From TrEMBL, chain A:
It comes from Rhodoblastus acidophilus. CDD domains: H2MP. InterPro entries: Pept_HybD-like_dom_sf, Peptidase_A31. Keywords: Aspartyl protease, Hydrolase, Protease. GO terms for molecular function: aspartic-type endopeptidase activity; enzyme activator activity. One of its GO terms (biological process) is protein processing. This is Hydrogenase maturation protease/hydrogenase 3 maturation protease. It holds the Pfam family HycI. Belongs to the peptidase A31 family. The keyword Protease applies. SUPFAM superfamilies: HybD-like.
From TrEMBL, chain B:
PROSITE patterns: NI_HGENASE_L_1 (PS00507). The keyword Magnesium applies. Pfam families: NiFeSe_Hases (PF00374). Ni(2+) binds at C61, C64, C483. This is Hydrogenase large subunit. Coiled coil: none annotated. The keyword Oxidoreductase applies. GO terms for molecular function: ferredoxin hydrogenase activity; nickel cation binding. Belongs to the [NiFe]/[NiFeSe] hydrogenase large subunit family. GO terms for cellular component: cell envelope.
Length: 152, 501
């Protein structure tokens, strides 16, 4: 039985949007205890709904839009995330998924969101900015207790 | 962790399609579809092992990965002379049908229908109903569709382990056999979906709905409370009140590669393939398919080339008259459209044929056909389950006897229309791989003869009441089920506006 999932969203081809993947890579070095799953979720659109099924808690790791403090780490409430405005199927981002989860019947997990503020939008330029790369390591460290049975 | 208040927007880098339209006196006089991203899967495939396409090409699309896997598998089977056993075909069909179920209702009720909730329509007699049904995250149909479509793709997970991007088909069959547990689970999922479709989407029993075969019968049904209050009934009333049945027909030539495969004769589709030239349907001849790059950012060549002779070598040249990363596929010289309308018209759905004969194809009929196709998907999915349950002992995989060099094509119908993969294997590795997606057919740029693509033609003549809120363009583009996130640029009296559609 999966109790908790850590879901790392983002696209490493697009600069700091890949911070979720970097956190995933850092966490992958550790063996998760029973009941914990760590998933590199990518940018899956509506398929992401399935990642929130059959677990008690989902911790989402994702990049935040640039706002002047690159690398800032924020823990956010799901209702604080705006739905993206792109409406076609591939444009359904995390904001849409969170709203959809809220609207769907049936049990939903407790959702925590850890955001890391990007330095800038850099489409098709792989690699993190220094501040965001450092923040990725810090987030992986902060999530460390999840790897200790019964903690976190 | 510190809690920080931010004004947030978790952005994704999006916008792989732009549509430029020129308005004169509020009417679109010219349109250009611009594919803004180089896909490059064809180049990625060169030099790889022949089977690599089974893992790589389902990643072309997050919505129709099953269709890409199916096409990639068929191409290898064609090259190697492999005939899969009937049970494998049934499982492949079942999964492709499930992918269609989720797409067709999501696209219709989560993306197309919410446009009727635009405040522009607040004085329309159907507006309050549209809000109650289609308003994002609040409307009853919207919420129920979110829930029902999430369930449908679990059918694929039973055989493929995951959806999307699964790789459970291979030349010779599928990786997992059917068993009673899977069949019972799939039947329960299908029953739930069918109940939703009958009671909420069409307001009629499936068999009676499938038996409906004339436009007049449909218009009579639309007058009955059961259908009029259903999701499709409400959509039809709103769309037809806005004349969307007379809007944006696009090109009159239609193409279908044939939907799903006959388990006992896998070369034959369950719904016929063909080319409709505006007057009659001819059998499909894949040899007539060719792609032009005259207005695309690829290394230039003359005229059109069949995919086995084609190439996808990028050659970005932003200055000049080339304007898209999409090629321009043509059937012979014909610009064609593909999708559920083409699939059902060519495949023999009498109701769609009657409506097409009565009114021609417009934005409403394209959308209507997408909802109508769900009935066929449910019927064939149940048929596949029944046939699998009838005799579970048949093989699900027969290893190919020969895996050497050769060339093959795999043609199928994806959610958005005709999808083809072409492969040539030489010295044990892929020498050539070409993919033509449904959206490449529909959203193609101009060809060597200067003929615009289907979307480009469909937008010409559309009247836009308010260029600051071009909802009419939204209706048309969404009726095409765009595979790509798109943005519209408008030129009107020298003014350039930018819209997310």
């Amino acid at each position: 039985m999966i109790r908790r999932r850590i879901l790392c969203f983002g696209n490493p081809l697009h600069g700091d949007d890949g911070v979720g993947a970097a956190v995933f890579a850092a966490l992958s070095a550790r063996k998760p205890p029973e009941g914990l799953e760590v998933i590199e979720a990518g940018t899956p659109g509506p398929a992401a709904l399935a990642l929130f099924e059959d677990c008690d808690e989902a911790i989402v790791v994702d990049a935040l839009a640039p706002a002047g403090s690159p690398g800032r780490i924020a823990q956010l409430a799901p209702e604080g995330i705006d739905a993206e405005t792109t409406p076609a199927p591939h444009g359904m981002g995390l904001g849409y998924i969170l709203r959809a989860l809220n609207a769907l019947p049936g049990p939903r997990p407790e959702i925590r969101i850890i955001g890391i503020e990007a330095a800038s939008h850099r489409p098709f330029q792989p690699g993190l900015s220094p501040a965001v790369a450092a923040a990725a390591g810090e987030v992986a460290r902060l999530l460390g207790p999840c790897f200790e049975d019964g903690h976190g | 962790m510190a809690r920080v208040q931010l004004n947030l927007n978790l952005n994704r880098v999006e916008g792989d399609l732009e549509i430029g339209v020129t308005l004169e006196d509020g009417v679109v006089v010219e349109a250009r579809t611009v594919g803004t991203m180089y896909r490059g899967f064809e180049q990625i495939m060169i030099g790889r092992a022949a089977r690599d396409g089974l893992v790589i090409t389902p990643r072309v699309c997050g919505i129709c990965g099953t269709a890409h896997l199916y096409a990639a598998t068929l191409a290898l089977e064609h090259a190697w002379g492999v005939t899969p056993p009937p049970h494998a075909v049934r499982i492949r069909n079942l999964c492709l049908l499930a992918e269609g179920l989720q797409n067709d209702l999501r696209q219709t009720l989560l993306f197309f229908a919410p446009d009727f909730c635009n405040p522009r329509y607040q004085n329309e007699p159907w507006f309050d109903e549209a809000l109650a049904g289609f308003e994002p995250f609040r409307g009853a149909f919207y919420l129920e569709t979110l829930a029902a479509t999430r369930e449908a793709v679990k059918i694929i997970a039973h055989f493929g382990g995951q959806w999307p991007h699964s790789s459970y088909m291979a030349p010779g069959g599928v990786t997992l056999p059917a068993d009673m547990r899977k069949l019972i689970a799939c039947r329960a999922l299908l029953d739930g979906f069918q109940r939703f479709y009958e009671t909420r989407v069409i307001g009629a029993p499936l068999d009676a709905w499938l038996a409906l075969d004339t436009a007049q019968d449909y218009f009579a049904l639309l007058e009955t409370p059961a259908h009029a209050r259903s999701a499709l009934g409400l959509l039809s009333r709103a769309a037809r009140a806005l004349d969307l049945h007379k809007t944006a027909a696009g090109v009159g030539a239609l193409l279908s590669f044939g939907a799903w495969r006959d388990p006992e004769n896998p070369d034959a589709p369950l719904l016929a393939a063909g080319f409709y030239d505006g007057a009659a349907t001819a059998p499909l001849d894949q040899g007539r398919i060719n792609e032009h790059v005259r207005h695309s950012w690829f290394r230039p060549y003359e005229g059109g080339r069949h995919p086995w002779k084609g190439e996808t070598i990028p050659n970005y040249a932003p200055d000049g008259d080339r304007y898209s990363w999409a090629k321009a596929p043509r059937y012979g010289d014909a610009v064609v459209q593909t999708g559920p309308l083409a699939e059902l018209l060519i495949g023999g759905d009498a109701l769609v044929a009657s409506l097409y004969a009565e009114e021609g194809g417009g934005a409403w009929l394209r959308q209507f056909a997408r909802v109508r196709r769900v009935a066929h998907e449910l019927r064939f999915a149940r048929q596949m389950l029944d046939q699998l349950a009838g005799d579970l002992s048949g093989p699900h995989f027969l290893p190919p006897a020969h895996e050497g060099d050769g060339e093959g094509h795999g043609l199928t119908m994806a959610a958005r229309g005709a999808l083809g993969h072409w492969i040539r294997v030489k010295d044990g590795v892929i020498e050539k791989y070409q993919i033509i997606t449904p959206t490449a057919w529909n959203a193609s740029p101009r060809d060597s003869a200067g003929q615009p693509g289907h979307w480009e033609q469909s937008l010409v003549g559309v009247r836009v009441k308010d260029p600051d809120d071009p909802i009419e363009i939204g209706h048309v583009i969404r009726s095409h089920d765009p595979c790509l996130v798109c943005t519209v640029h408008m030129l009107d009296s020298g003014r350039k506006l930018h819209f997310g559609v």
